[in-house]
Amino acid sequence: MKFNEQAFEQFEKAIGSNARFKRFMALAENSLVDSNMFIRCATLTYHKFLRAGYDFNKSKLLHYMSSKQVRARLVASLIQLITPETLNQVKNDRSSIR
């Protein structure tokens, strides 16, 4: 999806109603470990499309991401996922590959 306007259009068709979008985003926000790539993709795409003058009313997701409060909350939540334990886990996983 990253930087792909057609993918956002397909997402818009697939997600359908506002109620389904709200349920989807609630699930994504409550499962950040699993959805963090999606959230980062949406955030980066929002910033790129902003510079390009994209009409955010064409996409529920990008319109949602256009809220500075939403982006700040999501980024803060993603940062809170990083702990010494999760960083050490990555280090330990890499050492077992060798």
Explained architecture:
The chain is an all-alpha fold and 98 residues long. The protein is built from 6 helices and no strands. The chain has helices at residues 5-15, 18-30, 32-51, 60-65, 68-80, 84-97. α3 runs antiparallel to α5 (68-80). The termini are far apart.
The shape, in one word, is globular
In DSSP terms (H or I, runs of 4 or more residues), the helix count works out at 6
The tally of strands reads 0
Number of domains: 1
Low-confidence stretches: none
Radius of gyration over all CA atoms, rounded: 16 Å
Whole-Å distance between the termini?
Answer: 33 Å
Strand content: under 5%
- The helix-strand sequence is HHHHHH
Overall average pLDDT = 85
Give the SSE layout.
Layout: H1 5-15, H2 18-30, H3 32-51, H4 60-65, H5 68-80, H6 84-97
Helix pairs in contact: 3-5
Q: How would you briefly describe this protein structure?
A:
By secondary structure, the protein is an all-alpha fold. It has helices at residues 5-15, 18-30, 32-51, 60-65, 68-80, 84-97.
Key terms:
single chain; about 100 residues; mainly alpha; 6 helices; about 0% strand; globular
